[in-house]
Specification:
The protein is mainly beta. The chain contains 2 helices and 29 strands. The protein starts with a strand and ends with a strand.
């Protein structure tokens, strides 16, 4: 009996060696190299070079992500395949940056330098007239769309096309980073500050932290949680509120690196830090557990986590234009061609064959 070690070779040569007297023995080792059944993170659209500014789930399960460079927007009807670039019609200053993205009242709405765009299908876009407000973030209050811009600039619209600018106000955030409508008031976060207003005109500052950047705020579990870090990205603070006005600093995950992305779904909070650590909380931020990790950091993107209830799927925008999804609450990650993102020892295997003596 002779033992042969098969090395990679063209299929024609491989099959030419197989005779009635050749028996292939080790198939089990091949099966061992397959991803485990619990691995549920998938890269949806490798697109090197894109820098995400917002990821949103909306519509009929559609997923869209705003990006800094051209084309400005990427969208998918399923969030897992068929990703398409969306070229918005109007920008100023030669840029194609989309600073914010919102799904509300049956429309997708984007904020970009000088213009707000809106669409019902993520394909056909209507641009506003050139705005005197430089829109940073977008919010829907149940009756109107709102945009908050630089240095207290505010505008509102009932259709996301025609906008009315309000007088400059006392919002103490030079460049808003994120906003929500919660408990009948606007809550805006940004550098050094968390502030709120019942009408968009008069603002109250609730949290003030010098040289600190609060980058993301989300509602869930009948409360708000805002996350951020110092401007060096080395320390983290989380803030929580049940009414949008009274805020408590809560313990952040004990992991190095700032956090600038958070979302809520399936009864849990999920947060992402600069270095790819994923932490989860099922007690509204009282405690956090490290449930997964994404290789490839550091990543300074903000507001890049989302959740789709219809299939209990979390989404994450990451480095090099990758959008990932998870159906196991962030525990594990694999890409579409089944090579793991979460670092684990590589698996190797050998294929052995025995040639049987034939009389």
């Amino acid at each position: 009996m002779n033992m042969l070690l098969l090395h990679p070779r063209p299929a024609s040569r491989l099959f030419s060696t197989i005779t009635p007297g050749l028996l292939l023995m080790t198939i089990a080792s091949l099966l061992a190299s397959r991803p485990s059944a619990h691995a549920q993170w998938h890269i949806a659209n490798p697109n090197p070079g894109q820098t995400f500014t917002r990821l949103v789930v909306g519509g009929d399960g559609q997923v869209a992500s705003a990006v800094v460079q051209a084309p400005g927007l990427m969208a998918s009807p399923t969030g897992t395949n068929d990703w398409r670039s969306q070229h918005l019609p109007r920008f100023i200053d030669g840029t194609s940056t989309v600073g914010d993205l919102l799904w509300a009242n049956g429309k997708w709405v984007t904020a970009s330098p000088g213009y707000v765009h809106s669409s019902t299908d993520l394909i056909n876009w209507t641009a506003s007239a050139l705005l005197t407000v430089f829109p940073n973030v977008l919010t829907w209050d149940g009756t109107k769309y709102w945009t908050f811009g630089y240095a207290g600039q505010v505008a509102s619209s009932t259709d996301a096309v025609t906008w009315t600018q309000l007088p400059k106000n006392n919002l103490a955030i030079p460049q808003p980073a994120d906003s929500v409508w919660f408990n009948n008031r606007f809550v805006v976060v940004g550098q050094n500050t968390i502030a709120s207003s019942p009408d968009g005109a008069s603002w109250t500052t609730h949290v003030s932290a010098s040289l600190y950047y609060v980058g993301d705020i989300q509602a869930g579990g009948s409360r708000l949680i805002a996350v951020g870090s110092n401007l060096g990205g080395t320390t983290t603070n989380f803030f929580r509120s049940v009414d949008g006005t009274t805020w408590t600093m809560i313990a952040a995950p004990a992991t190095a690196g700032g956090y600038q992305a958070i979302t809520y779904g399936n009864g849990r909070w999920l947060t992402l830090n600069y270095f790819g650590a994923i932490h989860s909380s099922t007690d509204n931020g009282d405690s956090w557990q490290n449930v997964g990790s994404i290789a490839g950091g550091p990543n300074s993107f903000t507001r890049t986590l989302g959740y789709r209830e219809s299939d209990n799927r979390f989404f994450c925008g990451w480095l090099n234009g990758k959008i990932l999804s998870s159906t196991d609450n962030g525990a594990d990650w694999i890409n579409r061609n089944r090579s793991r993102i979460r670092q684990r020892p590589p698996k190797t295997f050998l294929i052995f064959c025995w040639r049987l003596s034939v009389p």
